[in-house]
Amino acid sequence: MATPRSERRRDLWWLWIPALVVVLLGSMAAAVATGPADIAVRDVASVVGAKLGLVDSDVSLLRTGIVWELRLPRVLTAAAVGAGLALSGAVMQALTRNPLADPYLLGLSSGASTGAVLVLLVGLSVALPVAAFLGATAALVATLVLARSLGEITPTRVVLAGLAVSSFAGALTSLLVFWNEKGDSFRQVLNWILGSLAGADWSSAALAWGAVVLVGLPLALRGRVLDAFAFGDTAAAALGVDVNRTRWLLLLATAVLTGVMVSVSGAIGFVGLVLPNAVRLMVGFSHRRMLPLCILLGAVFMVWVDTAARTLFDPREIPVGIITVLVGAPVFVAVLIKNRGRA
């Protein structure tokens, strides 16, 4: 039961928003400055200010290119991916009333990967976002249909159905890669399947942030509806929510958001699981509080995960998906144990 002190702290939840905005901007500046080339944060600010026409920059052309062409678009893409996946996880957890729900665990990321790898191998990379979206949607529908076929949809059945669909999609992706192995394509696709932002550029940053703005922000404004779902379908209907229509619209929007994120970063697991549960500990169960903070905290989290992925073992870079799984798997077990009574 929440104590009066914790209730007072949660009433001041909005203070987290400016604090996290400052942390996010500081993290992005520090991440752009971090790397083999010795670049100071003030140089990053100078380059960005000059590119925006605000100040004159005395930073060399080489360092300007590193900041503007390499690191900044990658950091921006990482922030958008973290924001999108964290928000998707929070929405899915609300709709399924399952704190273990996550685009990765429910098969969306694997389905998106299958669709994306398919078009990559046939040379239609221009169709990557659409293929990833269709793959994510197909996986989502398969998960819900499978869970429903087992009887009443429960948190345990949804997770088990999602794991089955995710495993099937993963096996199908591996088969596609194995069957079409050519030169370095196997390594390139494997790196993408494990999640990587090494190929991020301004187009991927624009695509990811476009999805966050056009799909993510409307989702973040549905906090009251998601709060109604938390009380069950009957209670939501009594509160005036068109349950089936609203659920499918929100799930479809989540599939779009996940598909776009996977198309620019590959399959990155557990971000949608870890961040919503962390935010829930900070501000409670109200989705009006949770969703904006999931966007900001997810962005901060992914910026630092990607920075760690490209610097910890320099000059070797490890896929970001490996780090998120290393962090997320223990959290998944902890949440599973905490909610074992609901299984």
From TrEMBL:
Source organism, top-level taxon: Bacteria
Keywords (A to Z) from UniProt: Cell membrane, Membrane, Transmembrane, Transmembrane helix, Transport
Membrane topology (UniProt): Multi-pass membrane protein
Subcellular location: Cell membrane
Pfam family, one: FecCD
CDD domains in alphabetical order: TM_ABC_iron-siderophores_like
Gene3D superfamilies xrefs: ABC transporter involved in vitamin B12 uptake, BtuC
Transmembrane domains' residue ranges: 12-33, 72-92, 104-124, 130-147, 159-180, 192-217, 249-278, 290-312, 318-337
Family to which the UniProt record says this protein belongs: Belongs to the binding-protein-dependent transport system permease family. FecCD subfamily.
Protein name (database record): F420-0 ABC transporter permease subunit
Organism the protein comes from: Nocardioides yefusunii
